[in-house]
Amino acid sequence: MKPYIIFFLIQLPCMIYAQLNLSGSYVSSFGKSVNNFNFFENRININSDWNDWTSWLELEHSNPPELGKKIIGLRKFRFEYQANKYGVKIGDLYEFWGNGLIFNMLDDQSIDMDTGIRGGLFSYNFGFLSAEYLIGAHQSFRSTTKAPDFDERIPNYKTDYKLQAGKISFDISRNRFEFFALNVKDQHLIPTKNQYLRLKDRLFGLSFSHIFENFEADYHYVQKSHNDGKAFNLNTFLFLEDYAISISFKDYRFNELSPFDRFDFVNHPHGVYYFQQMPTVYKIHSSLYLGRVAHQIDYNDEVGFNIGIEKSHAQNGTILLNYAQSSRHNEWALNSSSGFNSVWSIRKKSILSSSDWRFNPFSEVYLEVNGYYDSRLFYQISLAKTRDITDIFTNIYSTQGHSFSYNMLESITFPVLISYQLTPQNSFNFQFEYQKIKKGMIIKNPEANLGKEVFGSAFAEDIQGNTFLSIGYSRSPYWSISIDIDNASTEDILVVENGRNNNFVENFLNPFFDKSMTWASINYSMNLFSSTLISLSYGSQRAGIFCSNGVCRNMQAFEKGIKLGVTTAF
Amino acid sequence: MKALVLLGFLILNPLLFSQKIQSSLKFNRIDGRKISLDKYLSQGPVLINFWATWCGPCKKEMIHLDRLSKKYKNNGLNILSISIDTQRSLSEVKRYVRSKRYNFDVFIDPNQQIFKKLNGNIMPTNILIDRNGVIFWMHYGYIPGDEVTMESKILEVLNQ
What are the backbone dihedrals phi and psi of residue A515, each rounded to the nearest 5 degrees, phi first? Predict the structure, then answer.
């Protein structure tokens, strides 16, 4: 018998004879474009509770989904019982332990990332001491070019994990201590050998946090038995009058791989686990263009810090200055330039983050001012400068000199967000972003070009200028409409667009914006009832990197199509 | 046939069952400690607001939540602001909230367990609960002016 039929059979008598509370939501999204980026996703969440019992059920009918595998049927379920001192959860679990260094189970549909575990969680509270035990299994699905049948939208690689974990927490005054142990067995396919590896590993960790009036800190540490892998995260906060200052530090060292093997979790399985989604220790942005240049964190090998200073000012506004820097731990060098004999090896090590390109550094300076003026005008004005060495291809020290080649990205971004309330119900919304990007490969060969560095741009010109403009009008609480225009000054030769098929908005704007380099859309959303939102969009969206909460993936373009979304709670 | 049964069930659901929130529901404070919804419901209605540091409309809305909290706190209204920032950006929550000195209580839900339990799907989501724990009003998203509707609903629930 199918699980959801069992669920209803159990629930039906409860509904009739008992005080069962039932609620849920329905989310639907439909998209159709001329470049076959078509999708139709439907999800129903049903939550119910009865005394100390709760249940959660998610049904999905996605054929095909926007991202991920086709699913028709029961997607998630969980039953929970919570008594005064103890609790039990059975089903799909989403927990976080050790600030994500042990577990960070997330279900982010926008990037098709699900790190949830199906199993059981048992917890007991003794007062100042509490204990938890978790047992379950996890299947990770990811898209990778290292396995056959790569597809941007559908994952082509699966890993099976079986795990058991325990946690003990102590609360003493304003301090909290936590100790963790995790035992993992995973079945890992190596496609080139057509062979399954069965791996076992253990993780031990501890967390400590304390809170004072104007100072807070938390420390997290995890050690892996294999490979001597370890991760450390420290966050400190200082609150002084109108100022809030945070300093965070990360040191992740699970599997130090050469530039050639970096991010290859298929052939190098002894690295970080997929369900360990640790703090990025850099600012997560909501800006469209800053999202596109977001740094892809290497959880296996990265060290860095983040400093943020936030000051409140009049009209409930804030000034924020944030600086983030990170790099890998090692400089890797090739022993020879000839392909078959070349071997990468560690040449130099660094304990702290480095800004030298040989360590794949990333840095970002971000300044933001936001607040209200005259209680009608909301403004958010930002400026960001980023530098990221994304890939190193060669790094050779020979008798002829030093030769190298690497990919770099430098950008300056200026996002502005303005809302003006004409009347209490009517408002005008304006979003403008400008970005200047320099992206490409830097090559140096002592025997060519007089030994000088040569830059090969990823764009048709050296620098790409991007301009995003969104003009909207809204009438609360009923509807809002906006027109979005995304324009690039020059072509990105690394992104395959397969030609343009302009929509009428782009054709109309052509005298002002070159239609071959402009993606425009009209968006309308309507609150049908207080808890029902319908959105309709017509137009095109540019291909590129899409990031959600620090995890990025490449999205194909959406060309001349419509999108319809319905979200309702019942 | 199965789809029709399910659809009928969903349509009839609000008529047959009350949308009451489990009063023993526990929220995680930023310091890791838990507080039950009971504690707030015993004082009066509760407005639950889901937000995140990366959500622009949420930040626009917060000034209004702060004003409403100050205005109706003595009438028994509690506003609970729950951040769904994940562990990746959780440290920004403390800094943001402390620099703003908001009047309402702030909680975290990094794995969106409470968010899903209360049927949140869009940021921000606001849920107004009466003193008996029944959902009185729910709203997805924020456009300037929504605070006017929110205040009228708060007044309605306070006058119940």
Answer: -70, -20
Domains defined along chain B, listed by start: 14-158 (3.40.30.10)
**Angstrom distance (rounded) from CA B147 to CA B124:** 12
Contact A244 B94 (CB under 8 A): yes
What is the model's pLDDT at position B11? 47
Give CA–CA dist B139/B130, Å, rounded.
15
Best residue of B50, B58, B101, B121 to probe chain A, by most A CBs closer than 10 Å: B121
Tens of pLDDT, residues B38-90 = 999 999 999 999 999 888 889 889 989 999 999 999 999 999 999 998 877 78
* Beta strand pairing call for B105-108 and B78-83: parallel
Subunit contact B87:A477, Cβ cutoff 8 A: no
Interchain contact A236–B (C-beta under 8 A): no
Encode pLDDT of A233-271 as tens digits.
999 999 988 899 999 999 999 999 999 988 888 888 888
Mean pLDDT of B113-123: 88
Model ipTM value? 0.86
Spatial separation of the C-alpha atoms in residues A88 and A66, rounded to whole Å: 34
Cβ A93 vs Cβ A119: under 8 Å: yes
Q: Which of B91, B28, B115 is nearest to A99 (CA)?
A: B91
Taking contacts as CB-CB distances below 8 angstroms, the residues of chain B near A235 are: 91
CB pairs under 8 A between A and B: 203
